[in-house]
Every structure is written in C-alpha cells, then in structure tokens.
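TL;DR need structure tokens for one chain.
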Amino acid sequence: MAKIDLVMPKMGESIAEGTIIKWTKKEGDRIERDETILEISTDKVDSEIPSTASGVLAKILVEEGKTVAVGTVIAQIETEAATGAAPTNGQTKPAAAMPVETKKVETPAAAPMPVMAAAEPVSRQGKRFYSPLVRTIAKQENLSMQELEALPGTGVEGRVTKNDIMAYLQNRSLPKPAAGQPMPTPAPMPSVAARPTAPTLPPPAVMPSLPVDETRVEIMPMDHMRKRIAEHMVMSKHVSPHVYSVSECDMTNIVRYREAIKNEFEKRESTKLTFTPFFIDAVVRAIKDFPMINSSIDGDKVIIKKFINIGLAVALEQGLIVPVIKNSDSYNLVGLARATNDIAHRARNKQLKPDEVQNGTFSITNMGSFGNLFGIPVINQPQVAILGIGAIKKQPVVINEAIAIRDVVYLSLSYDHRIIDGAYGGQFLQRVVHYLENFKPEAR
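>> reply
TL;DR here they are.
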C-alpha cells in the first residue's frame, strides 16, 4: 500500500491560499483518478478539484471552511500500489479548458499591449510569510516591516490574515480614550478577498444585535462566495460616486437577423447564437470611440487601457461571477458567440481558472434574461463603468409620425463620476445604441 499527499493546488500566479468549501468524499470512500474530491475557493474563483490518483481517501487533514496556503497537505490518498500513481507532490491538474474556436477579424497589427505588473508573490521578508493581499494593505497604509512582525497572526502557523491587519489599522485610527477608559475593540472583518488594486476600507459598522425569535425565522450564514460579493459591492459603492444613464434601443434589425439564421448558425458552428455577442460587439466599437470608459483609477492617475477585456456577469445558483473575454476586440461575431457560450458553461460548472476572472476592463450584465425591463448595476471595481441590459420586448414606437411595433431594449450605464462625466457617459451609451440600431450583417 502507498499513501499520496494531496496538497492545496496553485490555481493562478497571484493565488497564495485557498479555502476548502466542501469535501465531496469522506474518509474511507473509494476515489477514481480525476474524480472530483473537493471544492475550493480562492480570492478569484471557486473550483472543483480532481483526485490525483485512484484509491481510498485515507485521511482528511484540513476541514471545510479552513483557509490554507498553496502547497499545504490537505489529505492523504491510499493507493494499492505506487506504480502508475500520480506524483507524490499531490499537485492537482486544473480542469481542462474547452477550446474556443474563433474566427478573428483581420485588422492591421495593433500597437503592443502595455506590460501588466506581475502580481507580488508571497514574501518572507520577516519571520513569517505575508500574502499579496496583506502586503498590499501594508504598503497602502505605510506599515513598516517592524509593525507587521509585531502583529499577532491568527492564520496558519501564525500568519497575519486580512482580518488581523484590518483590525490593527482600525484600532490605530481610533481616537485615544480618556484616562481610565478601555480602548474599544474593533469589529473583525469577514475573511473574504478584495482585488489587490482596491483601496483599503474600514470594517463596516456593527449594528446592535436585536432579539430574534428563532422559532419564526431561519438563520442562514453567508457562504464564501456571498461574503466576497457583499464586500466587493460595498467597497465599490464606497469608492466610486455612481452616476447612471438609461437609453432606449431599437433591436428590431438584430432580432430579425438572429431569428432568420440561428438554426443554421447552430448547425454550422456547433454553438448557439444569443444576443450577447451583438451587445459585446457594439460595446467594443463604442469603447474605441470613447477610450476613457476603458480605464481605471490609481490614486490621482487615470490608467487608460489599450486593450479591451470584456467581463460578462454569469448568474450562478449561489451567486454571481464575472469571467472575462480577453482581447474582445479581436473576435468577430462567430468568435464572440463561441467565447460567451464557453465561459458561461464553464462558470456554471466550476471549471474556470482564476486568470479567467481577472483583468477585465469593462463589464456587461444582463438583467433582461429574467424578464426585467432594466436594472442599475454596481460598478465592477477597479473598472469605471458597467452596462446593464434589459429584456427585449415588443413595444409601440413612433416612426415618421406613424406607430410601429418594434423590438425594444433598455440599456443602463453606471459610471464613476470621478473621471466620467454625464456628457461623456451619455455619449458613450448613445454610441452603443447607434451600433446596435445600425447593425449590418454583411459587416460581420
């Protein structure tokens, strides 16, 4: 008999730790190689992890809900023989990505894309390891290494967690109490990840606890994904002064075109043609006309991206995730159809890699898929704008002094008023409408 260590896998270049959400097998269960053995969550994405070998799950070393560093042994698998087994380092293989066949539009050679700064690795500059998130917060708050070393850590092997450093920062910023009065204890923040580029926020105010009749309510703790979404949304509203514009768009030409070719398209391309690729195509064209929409803010500097990475909000059973179509402007309509169907499928089946939900420059969310006329979305930080798409419905419209029945959609744009004014945001939204209403099949 041989035992193989299963370790917390490295799911991306900037990923230093992961949280075990659920063990799908229990001790003593038989496992086949590549069969899902557990689900983990990083600060970017939730993933199903396959077993590295066939055998029996001999021992679970890290229980559900615990966060451990990449490379930590989390379980042992007992195999009948070492021959042919997976390497004993226990590294798991990430789920293979479904290939996306794209037909790219031939365009002149583009200017080279700016080099993105590499994510800062975990460092042991002192006596302990510090994750990229902790080091980012320390840098933003001008904490010295001496201060970090003095912080008591509640993480694995005494590591300083985000909760530890945030509690210290809040305590440091509180006014000194009068003589004889104890210093108030800051409320701990939930251990959920924020984007490294997001500014550090103080913990939310603690509301007074009210008596609850537990016979008449159900108390349900937030899961890991819900906590991450909650923090990210609160942070976005805190950071960005949101401004909103809403426009009406006549989708009749696109609706008729899609209806006429969708069956033939699916047979020919082996993928469905939804309305999403049309919206992405129009957004990409409008971004090229209004490049400030494709930017982010770093302190008092505006970073205008020379590449277009469209994030697409995908509703999951337990929350929401925004996978990114990198270099969206290099795809034609067929390529966009394949790419959107692929990332949506893999998002719903927990097959995304952490790198596929990073570095978006603009996001789109479709409230219309549930029949809503329109919605007002929250900006996906550190981006500065997001487009909301409503339901496409037939409505009476006045055209040339006559009433006609047209397919109409409401589009909403939420944008960051720190750098996007109403005129610029409104003009961008109208340009998206223009490209949709003047859609020409022969140009695609």
